[in-house]
Amino acid sequence: MSGTRPRLALTSGEPAGIGPDLCILLSQHLATQDCGSDITCLADLTLLESRAAQLGTALVRSDAFRVEHVPLAATAVAGQLDVRNARYVLALLDRALAGCRSGEFAGMVTAPVQKSIINDAGIAFTGHTEYLADACGGLRPVMLLASQTLKVALATTHLPISAVSAALTPTVLDETLRIVDADLRRLWGIAHPRIAVCGLNPHAGEGGHLGREEIDVIAPAIARAQAAGIAATGPWPADTIFVPRQLESHDVVLAMFHDQGLPTLKYSGFGSAVNVTLGLPLLRTSVDHGTALDLAGTGKADGGSLEAALRLAAQLATSQVSA
């Protein structure tokens, strides 16, 4: 299959958010520029056409950008969430999953969803990452965000801060380090990924004076990873590992919780960073931002992150096929 041009599924996300706007912008972009793949956009076609009219522009359908119609439950209004459409959002993901499993799609790219409205519909949902992992048999997913200059993986994702320490078990850290190492080799072709592991506490615990998680849990996990041939180092204080001198000698930073690692990543590359789900038997990339309900239908949405997610998915899909 070497040289095969990948076809990717694009889920259009929350219909009241900027996902449809971004899909329209992408359809126009693909009419004039090659992003290395062909797209099947999963969306309500009437929604895309009506949103395009609201924006004073047009949806451009082509061989590079096809639309597969998935019907809404209720007419979507830009900026106004509607609980009736929660299952539509999940139907888009389910269709993309089915296509990835069958080989119809080489991977999926996801526009943002609104977690709150899905939960309001009575559906337990903590995010794309966890939903896809459950659908793939309860595998452990690892969220990684990548910009042009930085990769940050997360040991825990959508948890309250009060729950993070208890969630950092030896099993979680062992599996996360293994997945990060394996997928940086598999997807990015890095022969020996160098993983900088953050501590949990300020100053990485200050020798136990500011917390013992580094001594009792994190450092032993690093030692086990090293014994298994994984180039992990740390625990590093999170306030110093993100300086250029340190980053130059590492391929990825493993943060202990969501807001430990992502503020730096988003500061360095917001609008062009890409969310990649590691640890799954399928390829998934996504934007680095939310639904931006206040921007939906205004023409002010920036499609840079979605284009970056598409380009990276195409690159990673092609490298996997070639391998």
CATH architecture of the largest domain: 3-Layer(aba) Sandwich
| Strand fraction | 15-25%
Mean pLDDT: 93
N- and C-termini, Cα separation: 10 Å
What is the level 1 CATH name of the largest domain? Alpha Beta
Which consecutive residue ranges, at least 5 long each, have pLDDT under 50?
none
- The tally of structural domains comes to 2
Would you identify the CATH H-level superfamily of the largest domain? Answer: Isopropylmalate Dehydrogenase
- Please provide the count of β strands: 11
What is the gyration radius calculated from CA atoms?
Answer: 20 Å
Descriptive account of the structure:
- An 11-stranded mixed sheet has the order 3-2-1-4-11-10-5-6-9-7-8, sandwiched between helices.
- With 323 residues, it is of the alpha/beta class.
- The chain has 11 helices and 11 strands.
- Helix 7 packs across helix 8 (213-227).
- The longest helix is centred in the middle third of the chain and has 19 residues, at 170-188.
- The chain has 2 domains: 1-139 and 280-323, Isopropylmalate Dehydrogenase, CATH 3.40.718.10; 142-278, Isopropylmalate Dehydrogenase (3-Layer(aba) Sandwich), CATH 3.40.718.10.
- It starts with 6 loop residues before the first strand and ends with a helix.
- It has helices at residues 19-30, 45-55, 86-102, 115-120, 128-135, 164-167, 170-188, 213-227, 244-247, 258-269, 304-322, and strands spanning 7-11, 38-43, 65-69, 107-110, 142-146, 151-154, 194-198, 231-236, 252-255, 274-278, 284-286.
